[in-house]
Amino acid sequence: MLFGFEWDLSSPLAFALSILPILLTGLLVTLQATVVGFALALVLGLVWAVLKAAPSRIISWPVSVVIEFIRDTPLLVQLFFLYYVLPEYGIVLPAFMTGALALGIQYSAYTAEVYRAGLQAIGADQREAARALNLSSARTFTHIIVPQAIPRIVPAMGNYLVSIMKDVPVLSVVTVLEMLNVAKIVGDRTFDYLIPLSLVGALYLITTLVASAGVRLVDTWLPKEGIPLK
Amino acid sequence: MHWTEYFGPLAEGAWVTVQLTVYSTILGAILAFASGIGKLSSNWAIKAVSVAYIEVFRGTSLLVQLFWLYFALPLAGMALGIDLRLPPVMAGVLALGLNIGAYGAEVVRGAIQSVHKDQHEAARALNFTSRQTLWTITIPQAIPEMMPSFGNLAVQNLKDTALVSLISLGDLTFRAEQIRNFTQDSTTIYSMLLVAYFGMALVLTALMRGLEAYVSRWRMAGS
Questions:
Q1: Are A1 and A8 contacting, i.e. CB atoms less than 8 angstroms apart?
Q2: Which residues of B touch A209 (CB under 8 A)?
Q3: Do the chains contact at B198 and A69, CB–CB below 8 Å?
Q4: pTM flag (> 0.95)
Q5: Which residues pair with A5 in a beta bridge?
Q6: How far is B9 from chain A (nearest CA, A)?
Q7: What does the domain layout of chain B look like in residue ranges?
Q8: Where would I find the H helices in A86-123?
Q9: What is the mean pLDDT of residues B148-177?
Q10: Among all residues of chain A, which has the CA nearest to that of B78?
Q11: CA separation for the pair A48, A67 (Å, rounded)
């Protein structure tokens, strides 16, 4: 029994059906971790992107190194670092938050690049036109650059959302009860790993296909000429 | 245990990580070409197998694939009456290679499709068979296009090898975990671990850049 659901070992089909609610409970945790991790990645990535674009090299160079460091080291190791090292400095977070933070940090290195590329894709002629119209640089940024950058940024961010979802199982190592961990526990107790793990694979396939379709749908909805920030 | 004594076990683990990265990257590259080309095949069976492979391995999590190969596959084998128990190294290389191969397949497909249509027409006018066109005209020009993405995927693969420590394979992360369990010196050991992976990634990036420079001479003149 797990989360109050009994499993039925009378036949493979009965077993699969009886553990489905257990796995869906785990899927809910997976989705929660995905959303929190993605939100952190969006915010932190924006911070990196802004700092990296700083005019002073004293700021932009160390930030580039930090981004490269985050991008080149494994999520699992960053997670272990946060989980075991932060408490030594008096910062004790629940396992779920540590995991979401690790996802957010790892993917901030990727989202920073998306922000940078999206903002750079708006050509110099747009800036010149804004200048000729006497817009201040702040107004140029909020009313000219950002609205046009959004349709370029959103699809790439959507792809990282799906990637984050596929990295959530790593959080099982710090006892987060996401879908894979739940399936592993069911396997440990029933000595049948085949059905729980295969179901996890199938549920992942469905979830990522739905999420990818959602990302494509959002992409077609977005007006290509830009979204005003109003 | 002084922190300088960590180097020995970590170096042993790093060697396992390097081997895993090399083997799984090679396996991944083979699968990427096979299924990337297969996806463009006019034979529907080859195309269906390629698309199914790419979708399944891109659509699920690497850790799920790894656990499936290590924990579930032997049970599937038992049900069929064959021994499918894989040693951890095999399960690790297979999972990593199958996973990165599916991502690489999309890169291969995209690069092949980016080769200009004129090239195909010219090859046809010169009476090349479609096989000759693929291997001597299209692929040599497509490979330089693939290299930047392959570089990213190789680093991705190096990072992903850390997951094999979870099926008790003695890689870099596994060794570090052992030392941490023994000494409880988390800050030092995990800092060293992060730096080690960063260093390996920088070396791998440099190697891939070198390879990229080498194959760039296959680019069509003037492009």
A1: no
A2: 55, 59
A3: yes
A4: no
A5: A2
A6: 17
A7: 3-218
A8: 95-120
A9: 92
A10: A194
A11: 8
* Residue contact B63–A170, C-beta within 8 A: yes
pLDDT tens, residue by residue, B4-46: 888 888 899 999 999 999 999 999 999 999 999 999 988 999 9
Q: Compute CA distances A169 → A27, A79, A114, B63, whole Å.
A: 10, 12, 24, 6
**pLDDT tens digit string along A38-63?**
999 999 999 999 898 888 889 899 99
d(CA B180, CA B119): 58
Computed on alpha carbons and rounded to an integer, the radius of gyration of chain A in Å comes to 22
Q: Pick the residue from chain B with its C-alpha nearest to A180.
A: B64
**Phi (first) and psi of residue A53, to 5 degrees:** -85, 5
Name the β-bridge partners of A2. A5
Given a cut of 70, the residues of chain A with pLDDT beneath it are 228-230
- The reply to whether A31 touches chain B by the CB within 8 Å rule is no
Residue B118, pLDDT score:
86
Q: Quickly count: other Cβ atoms within 10 Å of residue B19's Cβ.
A: 14
Alpha-carbon torsion (A168, A170, A172, A174), positive or negative: negative
DSSP string across B117-183 = HHHHHHHHHTT--HHHIIIIIIHHHHHHHHHHHHHHHHHHHHHHGGGGGGGT--SHHHHHHHHHHHH
Burial of residue A25 (number of CB atoms within 10 Å: 0-12, 13-18, 19+): middle
The dihedral formed by the CA atoms of A104, A176, B57 and B196, expressed in degrees to the nearest 10: 60
Query: What tokens appear for B65 in the block?
Result: 């694939």
- How far, in Å, CA of A193 to CA of A198, rounded? 8
- H helices within A121-145, ranges in order? 124-132, 137-139
Separation of alpha carbons A45 and A47, rounded Å:
5
- List, for residues B72-105, the tens digit of each pLDDT value: 999 888 888 888 888 889 999 999 999 999 999 9
SS3 label, residue A2: strand
Tokens coding A216 = 């494509």
Q: Which fold has domain B3-218?
A: MetI-like fold (1.10.3720)
Helix spans in A53-94 (H): 57-72, 75-85
Q: Which domains, and CATH codes, for chain A?
A: 12-221 (1.10.3720.10)
User: How high is the ipTM of this complex?
Assistant: 0.90
By C-alpha distance, which of A28, A229, A227 is closest to A138? A229
